[in-house]
Amino acid sequence: xxxxxxxxxxxxxxxxxxxxxxxxxxxxxxxxxxxxxxxxxxxxxxxxxxxxxxxxxxxxxxxxxxxxxxxxxxxxxxxxxxxxxxxxxxxxxxxxxxxxxxxx
Length: 104
Description:
Layout: H1 2-24, E1 33-40, E2 45-55, E3 58-64, H2 69-103
Antiparallel strand pairs: 1-2, 2-3
Helix pairs in contact: 1-2
């Protein structure tokens, strides 16, 4: 049992090292969700892009010019990649801490 636990701890440490390396490769990022909105007035309707996100417990909305939509979406995708890596690292760190306590 002790051997299997130590083997799992080693595997976790290896995966954490890989995650750390991948984090250094994350590019420019922005949190949020990029969506196209439509606003109608009495005589016409128009579309615009909006980036909505929450940061430091404050909800925010930024308007995005049409020529920056691709770039902004790429930044949102980078943030999602970052969050996924950080969530995995956190899960592994919790498991690792529990295993270390277990083997004393």
